[in-house]
Amino acid sequence: MSLDPGHRLAMPSLATVQPALIGPIADLLTFYADVQLAMRQKSLIHAGDHVFVKRSIPNSWAYGTHVLLGQDVIDFDITLQSVDEATHTAMLIVRHVPPAELQLKLPATWMLKPVGSTPNNWVQVEKTGEGKYIAGIGHETFEADIKISLPSGCILSATMDNPVDVLERTCDDADLATCGEPASYRIRRQISLDAQPN
Q: For the residues 82-109, what does the mean pLDDT come to?
């Protein structure tokens, strides 16, 4: 992990990671990616400065044995909310928002209907021990509030609010063509990160 603007952050292979650690790994990487992306924006200088960065490239958390497909895709809406010269800190607000057009390759046509007000940007397919497939399609957003040290660029604290509205079906086949009735629910993850003194 590095906040050096020249360092290319990438999702590590999750094939050998314990499933309980996949979420924390992805969340920590999200905070670092947000700050590194903000550091590269030449127009983020003064409090209130804002920039929109299109990415529209899917991120994957599938690890092959249980989660066969796991992807989301987002663009970045970044605001330098405040700069505190007395404490040498700055506050970033990074909103992860769905692209205006569908950017995921979805395995079934029933997944094309938008769950939210924009095209779907979250998909997950899990294989159960009974040979069934649990397939979900959804609308995901993040908001990350990140406090950084101006001299070093280090993350001092961060919070993330991550709701996902999901439509899910249990299917008999890998093509997700023979499925039960859909169920709708919301996943909401709220994450916080605080730097500890050395």
A: 95
pTM: 0.84
Q: What's the pLDDT tens digit per position in 151-175?
A: 888 899 999 999 999 999 999 999 9
Contact call for residues 94 and 53 (beta carbons, < 8 A): no
Number of H helices, E strands in the chain: 1, 10
Q: Which phi and psi (to 5°) does residue 88 adopt?
A: 55, 45
**DSSP assignment, residue 109?**
G
- Reported as a single tens digit per residue, the pLDDT across 12-49 is 676 677 778 877 888 888 898 899 899 889 999 999 99
CB 140 within 8 A of CB 167: no
Please count the other Cβ atoms lying within 10 Å of the Cβ belonging to residue 34. Answer: 24
Which runs of consecutive H residues, i.e. helices, occur in 40-77? none
The DSSP 8-state label assigned to residue 11 in this structure reads P
102, 112 contact by CB (below 8 A): yes
